[in-house]
User: Which sequence fits this backbone?
């Protein structure tokens, strides 16, 4: 569809008026042509203060009037943020699609999506202190404050950048941060908040495998103890039971010890030790992997460039000869990356 | 790729809820209802649902691109309570039926009740896109603006500049947006009208310009009338007033004429504006009383003194004034503790959020209008607003009773949209 010009309805009229004004004695202005002209002049367009323009101003429709009225009435409600509080449309809309609208629901029609609290500045500082100053393992901090391990890591990572900027005297978006924090629900992770309220977020999430989403009928004897591990095996040979998918398995171990009669403070201390050990093991493993990758590589520094050579086996092409990791040109496999118009958006950034 | 232009982006007649913080969008969001679909065929229902949902979720992304991104297997997660895991191995769920145990008090805590809203996860793959993640992190006022930030090179991913708005974030990726861009996008826009409001005499300057000749005629008439009634005293005052005004004008003209290279274009603009104001004052002085005249004179002269000074001079003058103030206040009782604390806080606030006309947004910075109803940050992002950085922690998931994809549409519509894309994937 070609782009429409605003007020294009009046263009024939414009054309007509230019025709009319032309001095032509042979063509007297006809009544049929003059009629719409008169109509256009008789009904003055609303609030047309552009004296030089012949284009009529846009009609004020009923909807536009409604909108203007709504804006005028709701400007004090929604135009400016409520200091220290959320300001969602659920303030005035209590019922939508015959369902109740909850106060933390930014979209009245979607009860499944809620605006959940974010970590406040003090909470981020607390987490950073626990990890970087007190030297607690990430898993222990996660279990302590009920914040996901990945979030703990992200908070520390960004807090480090923030501290670096502070040292360098780089300007930060402080008024922006304050304003946004004032508009969002916050969690301070204070002692009292943690004791009384809900946990900040679920920290023991496990991914639901699509194989386990089906209903299965497995005949077993009545006397058999059918555990989670058995259920996982029934769903598929490679399906792991939830116990092995836990993000912080040390937490389950701690609870087991407590239920067996170990005093909770001692169990907690052992938990911290265990998580520390597991974290060190993971770090050692990663270091070894990086070292192995480095060993495979040969670096040649020419002064201007650093060439990196790696041994590749061209025979490793998989059973069909079309493995994704295989290198080089192979018969019958199109090289799409050289095709015209192929946009090569990187899939990861190191 | 050529970007699709949309006419009636925020229409009122055929409303579409969009990914923006616009006030029209807020109005449309309030009016949004699930349409009556009973009389429609199944195809029509799906079509309507698809067109409504796609108007919000990545309307700037072409349909074939989205169809390739769509996944028919939404991700979901369940919280496993460690206490429950430690005490039970799962066999208790099977025990009891037929064995006598009927009501077990064992529960896996930490989950909401209710079904997992898988159907609200239709557009979860879209949330992986860099531009939409920037909008979700509240760094841009619309998804299209976020896209522009990426294209203009204001965004880095893991410290490297990323120019593809369609880059799909991986869990653990950190993206960072230029602070100035974020402040401009989310702050009050700098409008000439707002600047004019700060100056007191500009409003009066517009009036005479509009109804030109009439006002002058009126002015002449009132002048004649006043002259007749009040006599010589007022006349003399007026003469004086006109004289000072013309002196001010001369001074301003001289400053202009010097042609100093240090005078910036902005400075010149201000001078010209000042001249215009003087002219307006001279025009309107005929119908003013004496007290008004003096106040106008004072205002204008102070304006000119501010204008003609270079920044260094202005600073020196302010310091001198402060010293003078300190000298005068030394014999008065000094500030008490509380007042000093308040003053210190005010100064700190000013230093943090200063008035700075060189910025592209209105200063001191304030959040833009109609923003707060749209302010939320979904759980799959962790944002640090101070450095305008955010980490994409994981893909959005559905949990019992909750879905992490911010979508304004009802489950009915989302389900129909899901069905539309099922056919094509």
Assistant:
């Amino acid at each position: 569809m070609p782009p429409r010009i605003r007020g294009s309805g009046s263009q024939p009229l414009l054309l007509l008026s230019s025709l009319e004004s032309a001095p032509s004695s042979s063509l007297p202005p006809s009544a049929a042509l003059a009629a719409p002209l008169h109509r256009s002049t008789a009904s003055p367009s609303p609030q047309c203060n552009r004296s030089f323009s012949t284009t009529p101003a846009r009609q004020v429709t009923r909807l536009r009037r409604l909108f203007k009225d709504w804006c005028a009435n709701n400007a004090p409600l929604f135009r400016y943020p409520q200091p220290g509080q959320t300001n969602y449309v659920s303030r005035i809309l209590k019922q939508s699609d015959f369902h109740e609208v909850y106060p933390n629901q930014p979209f009245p029609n979607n009860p499944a999506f809620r605006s959940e609290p974010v970590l406040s500045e003090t909470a981020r500082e607390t987490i950073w202190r626990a990890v970087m100053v007190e030297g607690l393992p990430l898993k222990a901090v996660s279990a302590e404050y009920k914040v996901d391990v990945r979030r703990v890591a992200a908070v520390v990572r960004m807090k480090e950048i923030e501290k670096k900027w502070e040292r360098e005297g780089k300007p930060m978006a402080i008024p922006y941060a304050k304003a946004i924090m004032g508009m969002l629900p916050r969690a301070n992770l204070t002692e009292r908040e943690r004791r009384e309220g809900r946990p900040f977020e679920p920290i023991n999430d496990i991914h639901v495998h699509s194989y386990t989403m089906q209903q299965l009928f497995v005949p077993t004897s009545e006397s058999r103890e059918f555990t989670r591990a058995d259920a996982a095996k029934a769903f598929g040979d490679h399906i792991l039971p939830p116990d092995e998918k836990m993000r912080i398995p040390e937490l389950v171990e701690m609870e087991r010890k407590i239920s067996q009669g170990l005093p909770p403070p001692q169990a907690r201390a052992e938990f911290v030790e265990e998580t520390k050990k597991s974290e060190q093991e993971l770090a050692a493993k990663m270091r070894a992997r990086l070292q192995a990758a480095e060993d495979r590589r040969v670096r040649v520094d020419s002064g201007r460039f650093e060439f990196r050579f790696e041994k590749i086996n061209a025979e490793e092409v998989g059973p069909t000869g079309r493995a994704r990791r295989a290198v080089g040109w192979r018969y019958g496999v199109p090289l799409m990356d050289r095709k015209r118009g192929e946009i090569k958006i990187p899939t990861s950034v190191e | 790729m050529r970007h699709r232009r949309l006419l009636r982006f925020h229409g009122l007649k055929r409303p579409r809820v969009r990914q923006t913080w616009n006030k029209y969008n807020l109005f449309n969001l309030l009016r949004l209802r699930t349409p009556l679909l009973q009389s429609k065929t199944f195809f029509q229902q799906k079509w309507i649902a698809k067109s409504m949902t796609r108007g919000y979720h990545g309307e700037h992304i072409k349909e074939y691109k989205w169809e390739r991104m769509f996944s028919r297997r939404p991700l979901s997660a369940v919280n496993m309570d460690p206490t429950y895991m430690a005490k039970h191995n799962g066999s208790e769920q099977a025990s009891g039926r037929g064995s006598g145990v009927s009501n077990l008090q064992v529960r896996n805590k930490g989950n909401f009740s209710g079904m997992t809203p898988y159907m609200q996860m239709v557009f979860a793959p879209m949330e992986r896109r860099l531009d939409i993640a920037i909008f979700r992190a509240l760094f841009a006022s619309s998804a299209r603006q976020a896209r522009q930030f990426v294209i203009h090179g204001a965004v880095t991913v893991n410290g490297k500049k990323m120019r593809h708005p369609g880059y799909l974030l991986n869990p653990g990726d950190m993206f960072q947006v230029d602070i100035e861009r974020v402040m401009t996008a989310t702050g009050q826009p700098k409008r000439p009208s707002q600047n004019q409001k700060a100056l007191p005499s500009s409003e009066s300057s517009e009036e005479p310009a509009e109804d030109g000749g009439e006002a002058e005629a009126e002015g002449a008439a009132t002048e004649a009338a006043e002259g007749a009634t009040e006599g010589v005293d007022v006349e003399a005052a007026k003469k004086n007033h006109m004289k000072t005004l013309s002196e001010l004008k001369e001074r301003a003209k001289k400053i202009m004429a010097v042609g100093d290279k240090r005078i910036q274009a902005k400075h010149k603009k201000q001078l010209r504006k000042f001249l215009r104001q003087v002219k307006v004052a001279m025009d309107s002085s005929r119908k003013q009383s004496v007290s008004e005249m003096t106040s106008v004179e004072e205002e204008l002269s102070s304006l000119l003194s501010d204008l003609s000074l270079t920044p260094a001079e202005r600073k020196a003058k302010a310091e001198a004034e402060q010293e003078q103030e300190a000298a005068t206040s030394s014999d008065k009782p000094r500030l008490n503790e509380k007042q000093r604390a308040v003053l210190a806080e005010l100064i700190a606030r000013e230093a943090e959020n200063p008035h700075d006309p060189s910025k592209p947004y209105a200063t001191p910075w304030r959040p833009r209008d109609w923003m707060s109803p749209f302010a939320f940050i979904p759980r799959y992002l962790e944002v640090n607003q101070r450095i305008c950085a955010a980490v994409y922690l994981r893909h959005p998931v559905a949990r019992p009773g909750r879905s992490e994809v911010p979508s304004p549409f009802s489950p009915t519509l989302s389900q129909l949209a899901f069905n539309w894309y099922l056919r094509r994937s």
Observations:
- Chain B touches chain A through 98 residues (CB under 8 Å).
